[in-house]
Write a structure and sequence with these properties.
Two copies of one chain form a homodimer. Chain A is of the alpha+beta class and about 150 residues long. Chain A has six helices and six strands; from the N terminus they run ααβααββββαβα. The structure holds a DNA duplex (25 and 25 nucleotides). Chains A, B: Belongs to the Fur family.
DNA sequence: TTTTGTGCAAAGTATTTGCAGCGAA
DNA sequence: TTCGCTGCAAATACTTTGCACAAAA
């Protein structure tokens, strides 16, 4: 079977771009940290471990390119930085996120929960949906578990 | 009946803050541009028309304060700036947005369409939802209308 | 040789912070 | 007088850009 990186290489070629060593290193970092929601700086530091000559600007340019090709999605959780998430292969839509306001953890929901809602929006607002962003802010199971334990102790 | 600005004043006082002239001017600008999704810079320029002495830093500080008090919600549509939306009084949740990728218009959906989805997330992921952000990117009715007209002409 | 991609440094934006002065309590 | 608030300027943080050079087609 064809590897994920091979398929990304083809996507680049189809759009007339090359998979240069720098781009490959960047993509590999993203593949190795699938659910990490890395910022450009995070990616840069990780890529630098394997390919120390790489420049930060190249990482930014690569991430921008991958965003254009919809290999990754760019997302912003409200701290000042953009984060980059690999899109699941074949996923019609970007996945959802759960951001914990206690511990800062970000969990992913791969299932598409918006089918019905999107139908309503398309019909009622006459809006052709191409993409979406859905993020819930609240308290994750780890933190509410801890709170329960704390209560028990007292 | 008590005015909206009066109620905001009370909210400030309850949290031990004053409604200074600068803060009042800022709030008034927000009230007068309810659906405009203003950036801090936008607010600053509008406030300056009424109160030219005001500084940009004060606007940033005021918007931060209002965000803390949940008078406004801070949102980011993926261009590098934060935008500030007055929260509807009594609204349990932040409203949703439709961002047009053709013309850049941002429309609001005040209805809460996420009730069922939130129930699923709370149950299935054991996550206590406190707030949400939902934005659809696509083509608005104005732009798809124009496209249809363009097609007719040819 | 033409084009594409890269690293570095500089430039841009957006936002935050330090600080001296001001004004209300 | 005290303390919160402000304006200004400087600092910071993130991202983009210009440019000379390198690599690939």
């Amino acid at each position: 079977m064809e590897s994920r990186i091979e398929r990304i290489k083809k996507q680049l070629h189809n759009a007339n771009y090359k998979l240069t060593p720098q781009r490959e290193a960047t993509v590999r970092v993203l593949l190795e940290h699938e659910e990490a929601h890395l910022s450009a700086e995070d990616v840069y530091l990780l890529v630098k471990e394997k390919a120390p000559e790489i420049g930060l600007a190249t990482v930014y340019r690569t991430l921008e390119l991958l965003t254009e090709l919809k290999v990754v999605d760019k997302i912003n959780f409200g701290d000042g930085v953009s984060r980059f998430d690999l899109r699941q292969e074949g996923a019609a839509h970007f996945h959802h996120h759960l951001v914990c306001i206690e511990c800062g953890a970000v969990d992913e929901i791969q299932e598409d929960l918006l089918g019905d809602v999107e139908q309503i929006v398309e019909d009622r607002w006459n809006f052709q949906i191409k993409d979406h962003r859905l993020t819930f802010h609240g308290i994750c199971w780890r933190c509410s578990g801890e709170a329960a334990e704390d209560a028990e102790r007292t």
